[in-house]
């Protein structure tokens, strides 16, 4: 099974314009993400997918593989599918967001291993225990699992509702996905579904269409970069690490 990692990197960002090229301890963020992803052992290729020539040129300058994609894609899945259509020899595509410079490489390998162990699996993702101060944050997406660690539902609301004390800690979804290539191509063609549109959570399209999403639960936590404050925090962490 050939595994490829795809890192979507849009230049435009409402809260942090030019985010992929933001400086993190002397290197652009997209290079930091690329370096972390490259530490995983399962993927044989790492590809940045961008719609901006500035990002394209930077990735090329540090020796990375990069593909120019359409600027008109309505979702990240459509951007991934465009890359998947070009790389017909890849069996499994793992999507790592371009604003996750602290992504844990072992999680990428764990996702790939799931598909080696269960050849019927089409899609998988990651979750971590939800912090109490994230309970009411719509940006912290929650997920409930069944006993097989398959997702039952994702929501921006707190689930399950704590009418009694939690039996298990509630879980926060981490937006790292793995897809079988053909499933990804088919998934991108599916029409948006009701809950997906209501919650604005694209992964619900797979569940509402009857597909299984396997979930790895990890205690690792990441600092995604969405705001200038996030960037300052991550920059400080890298500067401390590289002293």
Can you describe this structure?
The structure is a single chain. With 243 residues, the chain is an alpha/beta fold. The protein has 8 helices and 11 strands. The protein has helices at 29-38, 53-61, 76-86, 105-117, 181-189, 194-199, 204-208, 228-241; strands at residues 3-9, 23-24, 27-28, 45-50, 65-68, 92-95, 123-129, 142-145, 151-155, 171-180, 214-217. Strands 1, 4, 5, 6, 7, 8, 9, 10 and 11 form a 9-stranded mixed β-sheet that branches. A hairpin with a 5-residue loop joins strand 8 (142-145) and strand 9. The longest helix is centred in the last third of the chain and has 14 residues, at 228-241. The protein starts with a strand and ends with a helix.
Give a brief rundown of this model.
The protein is an alpha/beta fold and 243 residues long.
Q: How far do the termini sit from each other?
A: 39 Å
Residue-averaged pLDDT: 93
Query: Oligomeric form of this entry?
Result: single chain
Task: Look at the helices and sheets and give the structural class.
Answer: alpha/beta
Instruction: Tell me the fraction of residues in β-strands, as a range.
Output: 15-25%
Give the helices and strands as they follow along the chain. EEEHEHEHEHEEEEHHHEH
Fraction of residues in helix: 25-40%
Largest β-sheet summary: 9 strands, mixed
- Estimate the global geometry from the Cα principal axes: globular
């Amino acid at each position: 099974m050939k595994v490829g990692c795809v890192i979507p990197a849009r230049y435009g960002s409402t809260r942090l314009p030019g985010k992929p090229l933001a400086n993190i301890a002397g290197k652009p963020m997209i290079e930091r993400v690329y370096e972390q992803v490259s530490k995983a052992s399962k993927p044989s290729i790492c590809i940045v997918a961008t719609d901006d020539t500035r990002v394209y040129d930077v990735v090329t300058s540090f020796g990375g593989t990069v593909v120019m994609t359409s600027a008109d894609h309505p979702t990240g899945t459509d951007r991934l599918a465009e890359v998947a259509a070009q790389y017909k020899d890849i069996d499994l595509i793992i999507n790592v967001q371009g604003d996750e410079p602290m992504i844990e490489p072992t999680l990428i390998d764990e996702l790939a291993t799931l598909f080696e162990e269960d050849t019927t699996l089409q899609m998988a993702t990651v979750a971590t225990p939800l912090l109490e101060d994230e309970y009411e944050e719509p940006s912290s997406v929650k997920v409930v699992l069944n006993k097989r660690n398959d997702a039952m539902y994702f929501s921006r609301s707190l689930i399950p509702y704590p009418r009694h004390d939690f039996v298990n800690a509630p879980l926060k979804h981490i937006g790292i996905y793995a897809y079988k290539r053909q499933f990804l191509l088919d998934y991108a063609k599916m029409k948006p579904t009701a809950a997906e549109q209501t919650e604005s959570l694209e992964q619900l399209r797979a569940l509402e269409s009857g597909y299984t999403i396997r979930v790895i639960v990890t205690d690792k936590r990441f600092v995604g970069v969405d705001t200038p404050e996030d960037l300052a925090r991550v920059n400080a962490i890298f500067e401390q690490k590289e002293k």
